[in-house]
Every structure is written in C-alpha cells, then in structure tokens.
Design a protein that fits this description.
This is Integral membrane protein. It comes from Streptomyces toxytricini (Actinomyces toxytricini). The chain has 301 residues and is mainly α. Helices cover 75% and strands 0% of the residues. Helix 7 packs antiparallel against helix 10. It has 15 helices and no strands.
C-alpha cells in the first residue's frame, strides 16, 4: 500500500470510532443487546439496566434525564420483526393465576384435614406443607433454585418445626392457613408495584412509592395471620411473627433477592427464645424495604 493509500484509509478506519463517540446510546445498545432484544416493553429494559448498576445519574451521561427515558430510547432503537407482536393470551395467564391460588390453599386444607382426622403428626404435616409453599413462583415467575433452595427450605423447616414442637398442632394449622392470604398479598403487591413502575419517571420516584406498598402487604399478612391463629387456636405471639417471616422470605426470593440473608433470618427464628421470630421478621423487613423498592425486583422473567 502506498503512503497516499494508507493516508486515505486511516480516516475511514477511524470513522466508526467517531460515530460511536458521538452516539453513546448506540454503544450502550450494543453492550446490552440481549436485554434490549428480549424485553417486551421499556420497563423491562429499565429494570435490567438498574440491575446492572445503571442509575439516573449514569443515564445523564447518555444525555437522558433518567433510566426510564434511556430505556425508552433503547427499546425504540432495538431492531425487531416488521409484523405486530401477537397479543398475549389471557387464558393461560388466568389459568396459571387460578392454579397458583389453588396451590396456596393446599397447606391450609391439608392442615385442617389432618387436624380433623386427629393424625398423630398433624402439626408436622402442616409445617411441612407451609414450608413447601415457599417454592411456588410469584407473579414475576421467579423462585429460588439449587443449593439456595435447599438452604432456605431447611432453615424454614427448622423454624416452623421447632415452633410447632413448642406450641403444638394449632400453630402448624395457623401457619398453613396463612399461606393462601399470603399468596394474595404477594400477588397484589407485585401487580401494584408493576403499575407504579409504569407510572414512575425516575428510580427514586418508584422506590418512594414501592415502600408503602410493601408495608401495606405486610400489614395485610399480619392481619391474616392473626385471623388464622384465632381460627386455629394458636398463640398470636408465636404465629404472627413466624407467618410474616415466611411471607417475607417467599416475597424476597420470588423477586430475585439473594438467598443467604433469607436463610439466615429463618435460622434465627429457630433459636429457642421468644424474641427470635419477631427479631428475624423485623430484620427481613429491613432487608426487603430497599431490595423490593428497586425496579429490577419487578422485572418479569
């Protein structure tokens, strides 16, 4: 190649770099191409970006006021098929929701049936059914799997089993009966948080609206657990904190939270001391408030 040809080729080779530098969103689009192509709406991209450490302050470097605005541009610039997207079928989703609620009723039904039949291990059966309910996925489609699942379920079994051993079969029945309202409270929280996410224009705005929703869901589960304890004849001081703890554990796991703190809180509740379960529930609530106020916790999978 002659010196003249080399000089002519150099600007051509450097042109893509200049274009990329002048279009920072294009660089971001390439970096998160899989996320953008998989997303069904801009909210999925916003949640994914936040999960990867991109904040409203970071979005300003890409000439956007917040992550939501940046996600809208990424969604609009992501190549997709020419044909319109087929609307999601309501039937399967409704059937899945109905099946999920039916499964949530099983622990309470098993506990009541075992108690009515005066089975010698009715309390243990009720506790086992309640712990098994932790494995149900939430509205986000998430659930804990692998070694994390084993650790969480063992810790939950230890906490619930020890409590039933100390307080008798009625406590197991109360925990099992609280599973169904807990499922409804979790589903309502997920739906309302998703609605708030759609209406928010900044991550801080969403966080400030999600925290009261979580507190309302916990209050609803507390009331439901108190009612279940009264119905089963279990002591309120033992049933309510443990039911709320199990509710928060499932909520956190099904929204993508790391499992070690959840397992640790459940293990703390197994300590044979009266303040253990309330302290574990309070600690898990303190963890849930920031974790479930993130947009990334509400992305569908």
């Amino acid at each position: 190649m002659t010196p003249d040809e080399a000089g002519a080729a150099a600007p051509v080779a450097s042109a893509p770099r200049r274009r990329a530098a002048g279009d920072p969103v294009k660089t971001l689009l390439h970096r998160h191409q899989e996320l953008c192509e998989r997303a069904v709406d801009p909210l999925e991209i916003a949640a994914g970006l936040e999960a990867r450490g991109i904040t409203d302050r970071t979005a300003a470097r890409f000439r956007h006021r917040d992550v939501f605005s940046l996600a809208e541009e990424l969604y609009a610039r992501t190549p997709r098929g020419d044909g319109p997207a087929a609307p999601a079928a309501a039937g399967p989703r409704d059937a899945r929701a109905l099946r999920g609620f039916g499964l949530a009723l099983l622990p309470g039904a098993a506990a009541l049936a075992a108690g009515a039949a005066a089975l010698p291990y009715a309390g243990a059966l009720a506790a086992a059914a309640t712990v098994a309910a932790l494995a149900r996925p939430s509205a986000t489609g998430r659930t804990v799997r692998g070694r994390g699942s084993l650790a969480v379920h063992l810790a939950a079994a230890a906490a619930a089993g020890w409590a039933v051993h100390r307080h008798g079969t009625p406590l197991g029945a109360a925990l099992a009966l609280a599973a169904a309202p807990g499922h409804l409270a979790a589903a309502a929280f997920a739906a309302r948080a998703r609605s708030q996410l759609a209406a928010s224009r900044a991550l801080e705005d969403f966080a400030s609206s999600a925290r009261p929703l979580l507190l309302a869901a916990c209050a609803a589960q507390t009331a439901a657990a108190a009612g279940a304890a009264a119905l089963a004849g279990a002591p309120l001081a033992a049933a309510v904190p443990l039911a709320v703890l199990l509710f928060l554990a499932r909520l956190l796991l099904c929204h993508g939270a790391p499992w070690p703190p959840v397992a640790a809180a459940l293990a703390l509740a197994a300590v044979p001391a009266a303040p253990a379960a309330p302290a574990a529930a309070a600690g898990l609530l303190a963890l849930a408030l920031p974790v479930l106020a993130r947009a990334s916790a509400h992305a569908r999978t």
